[in-house]
Amino acid sequence: MSTPAWEQMLEVRTAEQTHALAAALGAVLEAGDLLILTGELGAGKTTFTQGLGEGLGVRAGIISPTFVLVRIHPNLPDGPRPGGPDLVHVDAYRLESASEIDDIDLENTLDSAVTVVEWGRNRVEHLSDSRLEVELHRTLGGATPAAGAPDSDVLDFDTDDDDEPRTVAIRGFGPRWAEPPALPMMPALPVIPPLPETPERNS
């Protein structure tokens, strides 16, 4: 499924707001949920994932898994969501295809954890019939691309996650995300229905 059921756009002005938005989203995520997280370097992907971890109630210490590919952060029995799902944090930047994703066996934890894949667009969509796509873009990084567009080839190597404003786009795909989650920082925007298919003309 390549057309989102809905799309919500918002601006966060500080790293703290990015973290808070993600924490609110993490609080409503469930085992089996798949998130694809994209954005240029320095856009705030790690800060966002740290917020997700807080909302999920998993062990602290979330960092970019670039050199490990996959990190698992277990749920804390004495945290805000005891018995909740673990967080599986994946960096797919160096993986070239869906087959390489399959080689790291994410299917083994997919049903029992929340899986967040950085740089996962066009690599992990086959893992689930439902997903959330979250894009973060720095103000200096240009406009947010449309759903389904390739990741930007222009990388911003200023990776300090400062308080520069970011644009956050959240899109829902599949039956799990037929409607947007109710989050404190997200306005109740109208659901964008899928575009009808245009019948082919016979020449």
What Rg is obtained from the alpha carbons, in whole angstroms?
17 Å
Low-confidence region ranges: 141-145, 150-160
The portion of residues assigned to helices is 10-25%
Give the termini distance in whole angstroms. 28 Å
Strand order of the largest sheet: 1-7-6-2-5-4-3
Overall strand count = 7
**N-to-C series of helices and strands:** EHEHEEHHEEE
Q: Explain this structure to me?
A:
With about 200 residues, the chain is of the alpha/beta class. The protein has helices at about 15-25, 45-55, 100-105, 105-110; strands at about 5-10, 35-40, 70-75, 85-90, 115-120, 130-140, 165-175. Helix 1 crosses helix 2. The two termini are about 30 Å apart.
Topology:
Elements: E1 6-12, H1 15-26, E2 34-38, H2 45-56, E3 70-73, E4 86-91, H3 98-103, H4 107-110, E5 113-118, E6 131-138, E7 166-173
Parallel strand pairs: 2-5, 2-6, 4-5
Antiparallel strand pairs: 1-7, 3-4, 6-7
Helix pairs in contact: 1-2
List keywords for this structure.
globular; 4 helices; 17% helix; seven-stranded mixed sheet; 203 residues
The gist of it:
Helices cover 17% and strands 22% of the residues. It has 203 residues and is of the alpha/beta class. The two termini are 28 Å apart.
